[in-house]
């Protein structure tokens, strides 16, 4: 299998090359040039397998240039070794009325771990396979969650280093502690004076500085990002759609061949797109429901065919979905049209005017598979309160957005709600939604308050923070970021 650009230059890469490169030369995203197909026998057989074994089976269909042993090694290092606090890795929790696919049992208690545990392994193996001599330095600007998940994923992975910049004013105390206590011999964490935009524009400027990059290249270091458009971040996510279906079968909630629906809290369109790939491969999926917060650009797109980012940006209580440009949508447009010149045209319009219209025909095709809905913060909090009342299950605000979309569906049969974060990561919003007082309490007191209501214990990674050693104290001005990168790169 080869990987090609959504925008149609004639590059044809192996999966290892696509994972190293990240983005195609024409600015497009890499997609597989054909779609592997599975039958019900393949799916039925997954029931008896562990998550790791399921992952090897699904990944092997896409990473055809990796050996079976290589894939197995990557998967074991990513998901084995008690890195996840549930042996099922991505368990389906069967409540009375609903089934919840919990994607937050990893080291940082959120869905990004599912991909960011595996991507570094795939990348490191790709470097070895392609006999690349250089070291890869991953640069990340973070407003919180992605930085920590990337640090955990890349720590001590051969031939890689990772440096994370976070705004010194702009992450919560727990988020800061999660990063500054990070362990590993190949990691650096640095605060930037300013806000998230300062950190992000600083990192972008470093990527775009050609003489800076070629200077590092000469010293054997190549910069890269752990961006969510990398194929190596998307492909791990296909696995859990198959895994959830197999768990539904095993629990007797469905029969082999029954169609299921997934409701997915969505921001950059990566999680739900993986569900779309699973459907293209033959998983019986009747609907993928895209759930957004007040930044409902995708709801409008999936209902009208017009993508328009020219709108107010809202900061919500589900911050990981506060996005106005959903990069991975480009892949959907490619698969729906198989017309890379059309896709390139829309992406050009998006960058020039902030808007494009895919027209009635493409929209009709999309609507056969996707539905969309959105919730504002008030409705999100109501969902948290309602679900706690009904099932004593505590939702995080991202999952609650999906829950609301689910509760409005007319056909509620065989629905799987995708849950993307542990509620402990969002104590304040969750406790206030449940009518508890949060005034004057420290984040650690809030963890304890939530533990009194939640049937899950405080995740290790959060609970032990109070007493962990601080290992990263650096603070820099924005204009000193390149110097800091150089120093760490050549260390
Ligand atoms: C990143 C994230 C999402 C959105 O996923 P996309 O792949 O960007 O659509 C939803 N919930 C949480 C908790 C996240 O971290």
Explain how this protein is built:
Helices cover 45% and strands 14% of the residues. By secondary structure, it is α/β, with parallel strands linked by helices. The protein has a domain of 244 residues: Rossmann fold (3-Layer(aba) Sandwich), CATH 3.40.50. Strand 5, helix 7 and strand 6 form a beta-alpha-beta unit. Helix 2 packs across helix 11, helix 3 packs across helix 11 and helix 17 crosses helix 18. It is globular. It starts with a strand and ends with a helix. The chain binds pyridoxal-5'-phosphate. Pyridoxal-5'-phosphate (PLP) binds next to helix 12.
Distance between the termini: 38 Å
Main sheet summary: 6 strands, mixed
Strand order of the largest sheet: 3-4-14-9-10-13
Helix content: 40-55%
Question: Layout of helices and strands, plus pairs?
Answer:
Layout: E1 3-5, H1 15-21, E2 30-32, H2 40-46, H3 51-62, H4 68-79, E3 92-94, E4 99-102, H5 112-116, H6 119-129, E5 135-141, H7 145-154, E6 160-167, H8 173-180, E7 187-192, H9 196-208, H10 210-218, E8 221-224, H11 231-250, E9 260-265, H12 270-281, E10 285-292, H13 297-304, E11 306-308, H14 329-337, H15 340-353, E12 355-357, H16 359-369, E13 370-374, H17 377-391, H18 397-407, E14 415-419, H19 427-433, H20 443-451, H21 460-463, E15 475-476, H22 481-489
Helix pairs in contact: 1-6, 2-11, 3-4, 3-11, 11-12, 14-15, 17-18, 17-19, 19-20
The structure holds pyridoxal-5'-phosphate.
Pyridoxal-5'-phosphate (PLP) binds at residues 110-112, 145, 265-271, 320-321, 398, 420-421.
């Amino acid at each position: 299998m080869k990987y090609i650009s959504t925008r149609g230059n004639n590059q044809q890469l192996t999966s290892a090359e696509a994972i190293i490169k990240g983005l195609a030369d024409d600015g497009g995203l890499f997609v597989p040039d054909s779609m592997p197909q599975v039958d019900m026998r393949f799916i039925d057989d997954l029931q008896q397998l562990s998550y790791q074994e399921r992952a090897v089976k699904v990944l092997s269909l896409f990473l055809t240039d990796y050996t079976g042993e290589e894939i197995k090694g990557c998967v074991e290092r990513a998901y084995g070794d008690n890195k996840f606090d549930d042996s099922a890795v991505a368990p389906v929790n069967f409540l009375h009325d609903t089934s919840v696919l919990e994607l937050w049992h990893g080291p940082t208690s959120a869905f990004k771990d599912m991909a960011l545990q595996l991507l570094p392994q795939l990348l490191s193996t790709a470097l070895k396979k392609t006999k690349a001599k250089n070291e890869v330095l991953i640069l990340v600007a973070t407003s919180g969650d992605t930085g920590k998940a990337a640090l955990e994923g890349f720590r001590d992975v051969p031939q890689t280093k990772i440096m994370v910049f976070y705004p010194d004013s702009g992450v919560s105390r727990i988020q800061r502690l999660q990063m500054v206590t990070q362990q590993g011999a190949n990691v650096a964490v640095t605060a930037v004076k300013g806000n998230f935009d300062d950190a992000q524009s600083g990192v972008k400027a470093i990527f775009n500085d050609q003489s800076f990059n070629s200077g590092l290249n000469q010293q054997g270091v190549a910069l890269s990002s752990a961006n969510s458009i990398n194929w190596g971040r998307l492909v791990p996510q296909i696995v859990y759609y198959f895994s959830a279906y197999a768990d539904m079968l095993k629990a007797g909630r469905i029969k082999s061949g029954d169609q299921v629906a997934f409701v997915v809290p969505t921001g950059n369109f990566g999680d739900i797109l993986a569900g779309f790939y699973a459907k293209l491969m033959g998983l019986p999926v009747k609907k993928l429901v895209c759930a957004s917060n007040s930044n409902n650009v995708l709801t409008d797109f999936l209902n009208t065919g017009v993508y328009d980012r020219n709108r107010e940006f809202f900061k919500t209580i589900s911050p990981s979905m506060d996005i106005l440009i959903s990069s991975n949508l480009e892949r959907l447009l490619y698969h729906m049209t198989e017309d890379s010149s059309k896709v390139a045209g829309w992406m050009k319009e998006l960058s020039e005017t902030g808007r494009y219209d895919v027209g009635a025909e493409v929209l009709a095709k999309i609507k056969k598979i996707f539905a969309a809905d959105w919730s504002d913060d008030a409705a999100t909090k109501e969902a948290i309160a309602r679900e706690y009342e009904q099932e004593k299950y505590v939702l995080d605000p991202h999952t609650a957005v999906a829950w609301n979309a689910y509760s409005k569906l007319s056909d509620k049969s065989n629905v799987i709600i995708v849950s993307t974060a542990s509620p402990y990561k969002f104590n304040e919003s969750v406790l206030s939604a449940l009518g508890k007082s949060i005034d004057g309490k420290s984040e650690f007191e809030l963890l304890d308050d939530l533990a009194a209501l939640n049937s899950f214990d405080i995740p290790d990674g959060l609970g032990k923070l109070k007493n962990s050693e601080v290992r990263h104290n650096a603070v820099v001005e924005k204009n000193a970021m390149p110097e800091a990168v150089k120093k760490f790169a050549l260390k």
